[in-house]
Amino acid sequence: MKIGEEVTKMDFSYWGSICLAVFITLWLTDRRRFLNGYFLIAGLICFVIAVWQWLEVTQAPWMQAMMLITSLVLTGIIPIALAFFALACVLYSRRLIRYSGSQLGYVMLETIGFVIWGMLIVTLLNSLFFRSHLIWMILGILFLWIGYLMVGFLSYALSSLLDEFPILYSVDFIVILGAGLLADGSVSRILQRRLDKGIAIYKQQRKRGAHPQFVVSGGQGSDEIMPESRAMGNYLIENGIAKSQIIQENASTSTYENLYNSEILMTKEKVFHRAIFVTNSFHVFRAGVIAKRLHTTMSGISASTSIHYLPFAAFREYLALFMMFKWTNAMILATLTISYLIYWLFVY
Questions:
Q1: Residue 269: which region, alpha, beta or left (left: phi > 0; alpha: psi -120 to 50)?
Q2: pTM score, two decimals?
Q3: Mind listing the pLDDT tens digit for each residue in 277-293?
Q4: 292, 263 Cβ separation under 8 angstroms
Q5: Interatomic CA distance for residues 257 and 251, integer angstroms
Q6: C-alpha 343: how far from chain center
């Protein structure tokens, strides 16, 4: 192999290192950045390609056999994975619509599922019968869009997992974001997990010598007999937290209002403060993005989520996150589409 070719094949490990270095820098300075997950994914993909290229030039027969088997497995797994992903999109969108009503994001998710199934069927038919270049071009655009959405979801998932890392500094306030109450006014299972996580953090902070206060944030829904903040305060008191350590914020009806109103109350108590908020794992990253938009320094900590509820909630959160950056996503998709068409029409 020529020296120039070897340098070219090593470029992916170089760019992978750059992407991972950027990711580490961004995440350590602010874990709420939307781009963190994308740089991590880009770095990992570059390293996978670099390893694959290294295996390609390896002369060992077992290496060549392993690559052939891997290629055959991926050829079969990718369409099957897409088919299951499409099925999940349809099933979860139906569930979202049933629980929350018909919304644009949920309808889009269902449409994506049906489009993927259609793409797979058309791909099979075009491979066997039509062999149309125009159909391949259209399918290429659609697969490009689906790939972008899947990378975005993976970025969201990785960013949410990274919020599982504990906070290693002392804080002045622990904000608990509200969730629904039960019919008798007691906290729901989801909200209980947030409160339990907050109590655990509080105990850790006390061992560090800190004396944080709780801010329990949540208004009263139309189907609730009391504000969520009062129910959360009652739960904390029942679990050994002094009433004097609890600040109630009872006007919020959304995550944005939770964080905005809590920040106002904390600033009144202490102008220069450090705070964290606690919410469930599927929600923590989007809440962190909102906190960043509000120019607060709050970072999020994840409470656990029931495994049967997690896929449902994660799909909903990613849709909400996608719509938060809808114009950015639209511009990226347009740029990718134009670049693909230029390549197809003038280079391919």
A1: alpha
A2: 0.79
A3: 999 988 999 999 999 99
A4: no
A5: 8
A6: 31
